[in-house]
Design a protein that fits this description.
Blueprint: H1 2-21, H2 29-45, H3 49-53, E1 56-60, H4 69-81, H5 83-86, H6 95-100, E2 102-106
Antiparallel strand pairs: 1-2
Length: 107
């Protein structure tokens, strides 16, 4: 589900970026749109459009409060870099999840 949510967000970001760059290809602008989308939705509602579609959300593991700005920023950077996002522990949490005391959970 996490990979599926990521792919939905990537495609959505590419489409949004293409709206602003047409008829040219969006190139790296889609990465910028992805970062803004991922960060903004994580801060505002705790889930990206792809996560919502696949019934996932980001939750803090230390207490029941919103993710917050700095945690969303670190998570966004981790997802963009991909390497931390691909390294997981026994619980299925990625490096950026551990750093920010968050987890992706089913809704």
């Amino acid at each position: 589900p996490r990979l599926g949510a990521f792919l939905v967000d990537v495609v959505l970001s590419g489409l949004v970026a293409a709206l602003f760059t047409a008829p040219e290809l969006p190139r790296n602008r889609s990465l910028l749109v992805f970062a803004v989308l991922y960060f903004g939705f994580t801060v505002l509602v705790g889930q990206t459009p792809g996560m919502r579609l696949l019934k996932l959300r980001v939750a803090r593991v230390d207490r029941k409060v919103p993710v917050g700005v700095w945690r969303a920023a670190v998570r966004t950077l981790g997802v963009i870099l991909l390497i931390p996002a691909l390294i997981r522990d026994r619980e299925g949490r990625s490096v950026h999840d551990r750093l920010t005391q968050t987890a992706v959970v089913r809704t």
